[in-house]
Amino acid sequence: MSAAALTMAGAELSAILEHCRRELPNEACGILGGRAGRVESVQPVQSAHPSPSRFAMEPTAQFLAMEELSRADRELVGIYHSHPGGPAVPSTADLQEACWPGTMLPNYPGAIQVIVSLQDGAAPIVRGYAADRGMFVEVPIRIDERETAR
Amino acid sequence: MPVTIRIPTPLQRLSGGKLEVTCSATSIEGLLEALEMAHPGMKERLTVSGKVRPFINLYVNGEDIRTLDAEASVLKDGDTVAIIAAIAGGHA
Looking at this predicted complex, what is its ipTM? Predict the structure, then answer.
């Protein structure tokens, strides 16, 4: 199951936001490695077909990013993507594609889905969700300012 | 030496909880059949109309089969096949 919350350092949040802004006007995506709901690494992953309203990680880039996590002995604790022109809430596509096709089984049950809204560029909104029996349940994202980026 | 298959979490209930299984196969098509024989229900979860489902990626030693010969991709003893769900979505 997913952790009940996701904790990250301010520097890690900044890395996510910088990536999301860099990809504008398209959606950005990446994976978060760590342990027990604490983010230790932010890995941007290129989208196969960059779009302002869709993302799909390029398959080989996704594979390599996940292999890197394993080599670093980290778990996949989160998956992030941006909604450049929409709210920080999961879309129907987000939910459908977070589950194994034809089932309500989450593809990555240990990972929190992090959505970054850039609707208001000056004030991005970041929210986290856990997939649970075909639904997304919001979970807190905690920013630990005492942590430093690794 | 057989082929090793890495099973993703949502399919581990079909593999008896195993993260990896082995089977003998000389192609991805053959591997899908062998998986189904050993772990019934696996083929339906992985394919539709004989093709690997959209949003499901299979990798042979780290290479996406869609960049090889798709379902006809050749396997040899000692290969590792990873089954990994695509990560996708979006605001649309």
Answer: 0.93
- Report the CATH number that the domain containing residue B45 is assigned in CATH: 3.10.20.30
Give domain status of residue B10, yes or no: yes
Determine contact: A121 vs chain B, CB below 8 A: no
Which residue of A45, A53, A100 is in closest CB contact with B92?
A: A53
CA quadruple A2, A138, B46, B42: dihedral sign: positive
Three-state SS at A86 = coil
pLDDT digits (tens, 9 = 90+) for B51-86: 999 999 999 999 999 999 999 999 999 999 999 999
SS3 A119: coil
Establish if A134 touches chain B: CB-CB under 8 angstroms: no
Whole-model pTM: value is 0.93
Query: Cβ distance A100 to B11 under 8 Å?
Result: yes
- The residues of A that are catalytic are 27
Q: Indicate yes or no: CB of B85 within 8 angstroms of CB of A83.
A: no
Q: Tokens for B12, please give them.
A: 């581990």
Tell me the domains of chain A and their CATH numbers. Answer: 6-144 (3.40.140.10)
Distance, CA of B15 to CA of A52 (rounded, Å): 38
